[in-house]
Specification:
The structure is a single chain. Helices cover 42% and strands 11% of the residues. A five-stranded parallel beta sheet has the order 6-7-8-9-10. It has a two-stranded parallel ribbon with strand order 1-11. A two-stranded parallel sheet has the order 2-5. It has 14 helices and eleven strands. α3 runs parallel beside α5 (127-142), α6 (157-165) packs across α8 and α7 (167-176) crosses α8.
Length: 359
């Protein structure tokens, strides 16, 4: 596959495939933001509400066209567009409406207990799911040979149950009716393949690799799996009520990254790392808890379990500091910040030298 502004795209695919297997070629994958050559040019659009802005299909693709035209895509960075109405798309399929802010959206809960969810079935023919379908279709059409169209960010499993019930209510149900929560998570998990394939099949038929809001590459079914709700619960509750629904997703997908969000989620790391079907872990320590060099023990635990690492470092120096304590196989560098081309190329060269044992 060829992309106009990413002539070495197939090399990026090959490096990612090695990463999924805990291997490296010449160096680990590197995803790095480089300052564009010039500001993107796109006509300003005015909206009556944040909802209108989020649902503007043409406007979203016009912005992607403008950004791709000036983007600089080095190493494993590539142009991509994510069709999105925010992270709780799956909740809309079960009947939730969304509220919008400039940066995100959230669902309005619709049940008063987790057991009520057992009576619900998804309907993908709604305004939000159809909006994501329309964005996907237009992105695939206008982005052909220019950028990749990604899978959506779609909270499923326990996060979907929390969206339908509300997190505080779900926590109360766990304390008083753990079985009901387990049944609700198992119930929504039954529909994960159907919801995933509704968008995946539209993308896969074009022949492009799969990517997501986490910018990996794989030629097949892959996704970022997450259950942010689990930061609120004990290991026993996680194992008995939540983990079975996560296993449905891991076993369905060919490749997966788990989004481990916040220090409170670390109590579940060992249980997650023991899952054979899980390929890699994305550790997000959260605002005020950095840099990543504070969490070297976490990265070591991940590597000891045989899982890949998406290393979300604060900056280039932080990435180098963590790398001193890790083996190159299975590491994917994603340093924060925006850099000049020279700075980015310097880091990519360093990554090659580090992988070769010269740093």
């Amino acid at each position: 596959m060829e992309l106009e502004r990413k002539p070495d795209f197939e090399e990026a695919c090959t490096r990612f495939e090695a990463w999924w297997h805990g291997e490296i070629l010449d160096r680990p994958p590197v995803t790095i933001n480089v300052r564009p050559e010039r500001p993107p040019k796109v006509a300003t659009r005015r909206y009556a509400s944040e909802r209108d802005r989020w649902l503007d299909v043409e406007g979203a693709i016009a912005w992607q066209e403008a950004a791709t035209a000036v983007g600089v895509y080095l190493a494993e960075t590539f142009p991509r567009y994510e069709p999105s109405v925010g992270p709780e798309l799956a909740a809309t399929a079960f009947g939730c409406d969304l509220e919008f802010s400039p940066d995100s959206s959230w669902s309005r809960p619709i049940v008063s207990s987790c057991r009520e969810i057992l009576r619900l079935a998804p309907n993908l023919d709604n305004v939000y799911w159809n909006n994501v379908r329309a964005k996907t279709a237009l992105s695939l059409e206008r982005g052909r040979g220019k950028w990749l169209t990604s899978m959506y960010d779609c909270h499923t499993n326990a996060d979907l149950v929390a969206a339908l019930r509300d997190p505080a209510g779900m926590a109360l149900d766990l304390a008083t009716d753990l079985e009901g929560v387990r049944l609700a998570c198992d119930h929504v998990a039954r529909f994960f393949p159907m919801m995933y394939e509704d968008i995946y099949n539209r993308i896969d038929v074009t022949g492009q690799p799969t990517t997501s809001w986490t910018p990996f590459l794989h030629r097949g079914k892959a996704n970022t799996v997450q259950a942010d709700f689990v930061i609120m619960i004990s290991p026993r509750m996680f194992h008995e009520a939540i983990l079975p629904s996560l296993l449905v997703e891991f076993r369905y997908l060919e490749r997966s990254v788990y989004h481990l969000d916040g220090p409170g989620a670390l109590r579940h790391l060992d249980a997650l790392a023991a899952i054979p079907e899980l390929n890699a872990i994305q550790w997000v320590y959260g605002a005020g808890n950095g840099p990543s060099a504070r969490w070297i023990d976490v990265y070591k635990r991940v590597q000891a379990a045989g899982k890949g690492i998406q290393l979300l470092a604060e900056d280039l120096g932080d990435a180098r500091a963590v790398a001193k304590h890790l083996k190159p196989e299975g590491v994917w560098f994603c340093p924060g910040g925006v850099y000049s081309r020279a700075e980015a190329e310097g880091f990519i060269t360093w990554a090659s030298r580090w992988a070769a044992g010269k740093e």
